[in-house]
Specification:
Elements (H helix, E strand, L loop, with lengths): L2 E6 L2 E6 L2 E4 L7 H5 L2 H8 L22 E4 L4 H6 L11 E4 L4 E2 L5 E3 L6 E2 L2 E7 L14 H4 E8 L2 E2 H7 L12 E2 L4 E3 L11 E7 L2 E7 L7 H8 L10 E3 L13 H7 L4 H12 L11 E8 L5 E11 L2
Parallel strand pairs: 4-16, 6-12, 7-18
Antiparallel strand pairs: 1-2, 1-13, 2-3, 4-5, 8-11, 9-10, 9-16, 10-13, 14-15, 14-17, 17-18
Length: about 300
């Protein structure tokens, strides 16, 4: 049975059908809270509930922490990028945890960024120390992942693509809106992971709508690969990829073949000139909403709502 955790500036809460119950804990980090399961359980059966919508929620994942993300991990997104899902290797990149922001905070577009994109993603929150060399099995997987959270892997495409590295383009403050809810899973809940549907709207228009069944490498495989080289600690965040529907998509194949014959400077100039005419990139005032749940609502990570604004 899932347990929904909320966080405000001064407290942690359990979200129940009766409302939000404050958790009596000294924990100040996500990792610390996950170690205090007794206090979480006590809050579930507590009293003194308050309406959850009266709380000013912030990210349930605290920084600093490690933020690791999977690249090109939904078949639909891979095809939309002009690649073959059958030939995509498992790959990762890092984001700064300084990019983590709240589920209702503004997304601030830096003044030098023109092509700001969105990516709805499921975030895995690590619940147990994962040393390098750990072996992940179906029996132990649920020990290492405490639960799930909504994330938006905001991306500055005009920095990402020419640099051929992702760190700067995805690490500006506010480029990883997280929450509103950290949903803790037990072992049985993972049986429904494949039923989760990711949906993203911009100004009310559906841009992304896909279930986890489209995912290429599932979390157990991803953690097993990460454990070869990356130590993870309780409270760390692993993003699992996004489906088709982002603003960025590959050009038609003939144009791509021709552009690859051009000098790099010319190729990128023409590419970004074309992308600049794409109305799907985020602009100041745009409202981005993300919801992730099973279609029957039995597992629900909540609904994130952020507004884009230009840097002052």
């Amino acid at each position: 049975m899932t347990v929904s955790i909320l966080r405000t500036a001064d407290a942690w809460w359990v979200h129940t059908p009766s409302g939000a119950s404050r958790i009596d804990t000294l924990a100040t980090t996500t990792g610390g809270l996950l170690a205090d399961r007794a206090s979480i359980q006590a809050a579930i059966g507590g009293n003194g509930f308050v309406p959850a919508d009266s709380l000013q929620l912030i990210s349930p994942v605290t920084a600093p922490c490690r933020v690791v993300a999977q690249m090109a991990n939904f078949a639909s997104h891979v095809r939309d990028s002009g690649m073959d899902p059958q030939k995509i290797p498992m790959a990762f990149f890092r984001k700064s945890s300084g990019s983590i922001s709240g589920p209702y905070d503004d997304v601030v577009r830096p003044g030098h960024v023109r092509l700001l994109d969105y990516e709805a993603e499921i975030g895995l929150v690590i619940g147990k120390e994962l040393p390098v060399g750990s072996v992940i099995t179906p029996e132990t997987f649920a020990d290492y992942v405490a639960g799930l959270v909504i994330t938006n892997d905001v991306s500055a495409r005009d920095l990402q693509l020419p640099q051929t590295q992702f760190y700067e383009s995805k690490s500006y403050p506010g480029f990883t809106p997280t929450g509103p809810t950290l949903v803790l899973f037990d072992a049985d809940d993972w049986n429904r992971f494949g039923d989760l549907r990711l949906r993203l709207w911009v100004n009310g228009e559906v841009r992304q709508d896909m279930t986890v069944a489209d995912m290429i490498y599932l979390p157990m495989d991803a953690l097993g690969t990460l454990a070869r080289f990356q130590h993870l600690s309780p409270g760390d965040l692993v993003l699992t990829g996004t489906p088709a529907g982002t603003a960025l998509s590959a050009p038609p194949k003939p144009i791509e073949i021709i552009s690859n014959l051009l000098p790099p400077a010319t190729k990128w100039r023409l590419f970004f000139r074309a992308q600049g005419r794409n109305p799907k990139y985020l602009k100041s005032g745009d409202v981005v909403e993300i919801a992730i749940s099973t279609d029957d609502g039995k597992i629900d990570l909540g609904r994130q709502r952020t507004t884009v604004r230009a840097a002052r």
